[in-house]
Amino acid sequence: MKAGIVFILLFLSALAIQAQILRKENLDIEQFIESLFPIQDEDINYEDIYEQLLQYYLNPINLNTGTGEELRSLYVLGPIEINNLLSYRENFGPLLSIYELQAVPGFTLEAIERLLPFVTLEEKASDEGSLLNRIINSQNRYLIVRYERTLETKRGYTPPDTLSGGRLSSRYAGDPNKIYTRFRSSRAGDYSIGFTAEKDQGETFGWNPKQKTYGFDFWSYHLVLQNKGKWQTIALGDYQMQFGQGLLLGAGFFVGKGAETITAIRRGNTGIRPYTSVLEGGYFKGAAATYKAGKFLITGFYSNARRDATLGETDGEIESAFSETFISSIRTSGFHRTQSEIDGKRKINERITGANITYKDPKGAWLAGATAMLTQYNLPLQRQDRLYNRFEFNGRQNFNSSAYYSYSFDNFNFFGEVASSSSGGIGMVNGVLAGLSSTLEAAVLHRKFDKDFHSLYAAGFSENSRNINEEGFYVGLKFTPNRKLKLAVYADRFEFPWLRFRVDAPSRGHEYLARLTYTPNRNVHLYFQAREESKARNFSSESNSLNLVLQGLKRNYMINVEFGNNENLQLRSRLQWSTYELGTSFTSGMTLVQDLNWQFGKFRLSSRLALFDTEDYDNRQYVFERDVLYAFAIPAYFGEGIRTYLLGQYKFTRNTSVWLKWARTRYFDRDIIGSGLERISGQQRNDIRLQLMTSF
Question: What is the predicted pLDDT for the residue at 659?
């Protein structure tokens, strides 16, 4: 009976299945990520999100063995869908075909299409031969080489000026070329090995041990082994970790507040993962391993890395609890272009030691664990003497511990984590995802981070960019009355008990979002979105020497229409505008965007024409751009001008592709673009990016 139902479903949906297969082979990860975010923002680490999502694509989850925790980590399925899939497997046994998902209650065609690229029914291949032979014979090896440059001359590359006293002004030490290369070989559930290297614009390329430069300015490398007997994971080199809700270790694919108002607020317990990005911070360098002992997973990790920093020296006439040399700030930009940036390169040593233990219920209902870690620096950290820094971390070492849980019951998933730091500060996140009916889903989350809670690698759900000095309450709803309509909303209210940068008093705020999506058929996709955010900010006036703290109110609106009459042509139009109020000031900004994406044969073309007009920087508009693989462009449209780009991809052979992107921004309201050493004289900026990728 079951086989007959599957046969009928496959026969009746043949055309849809063919289209779905095409989507899987030509996955547009940029578009998938963009659909999760309401407003693009420069504070979000899109490169890391992209990389982690790609790893799910290259190492798909087995639908017949994947746990609820693994499925939730994709942010594609809601509580009801996951519960229905697990119940379907229990009642009918393993799925015979991936398209049998159409027989699982609650699974819409849209949900299946989004899920397909990240799941499989194939069992893990056996470990035949030695590891070296598997690496040599792997079908998933690739090499990427990329070159990019701004065609106009920036001030940092011009001859230096002579200052008073005969000193020369600062300039970039290297040339304006950016070079990137990456190699990786991996096999799902078996191993991953590779390296990434990069030289940013303005950095030198050469062999200079005194400046800690060895060819490329930055190198990252890793070897990760999986499922070697009772050893679930062994990592050497550069790696990341994600446990609990990210209050101690929060790396990897995490969305937070966005257009996906339900599943995206929860973190997945993904454990150890290889680090392959070029972001020069937020990762560990050393070794980590996870051992499976019955129902427990035991992880130990050690990292010993050099970090960029600015050093200071105490004044001998002032009493200080610190040594003469101290860390005034830890740099995370990764740039080493000027002499001051080079002087701070890998200036300090950071050593981290820790362990984790996780219990997993064999039936998948329960998950609980605990983490402890010690972070040590070779010099003390002493932040600037500012009132908002009074409760920030200072010193040589910080100890953190946490406990977390996840429990699923019917269509409810409860989750949370509580953590502490050496200061005595506490951080906590607790929430629930609920499938209230076949058409209504809800999410509720509370978080609280003390003003002296110090967790240096945390990335839990919060309004702040760091988990400190905040308390908030989030409620999200998603209503899907039919396959054509979907309404997603959330409300988030938060407060900051202590001062923050540019906010000289305790403050509070809120954020509301609503997105209405209408999909009348496969070829048309429309949505309207509105967001309001209220946050405090210092306001200075000529009549008052002290800063006033006023509530700033920003409203964003977006209308987006996508049309594709076949698999090779897609048109997208977007109108995006915003307003900002602070005191008596009221400003606005807008952008109108038209995209055309066309694929024919071995060639793929993406293009954009965008007009923008914003009154100030508070109304800058961010719009995600398509780019070459592993590269990202989210430019801020600010002022008055036109932004255009052309991106072409040509597939020479099955294993070799080349990309070329040209982007141009023309301003109508200025004759100088940028500031400092990035300043360009003129009204336009042109950037090119060339990339070659070969698989072997």
Answer: 96
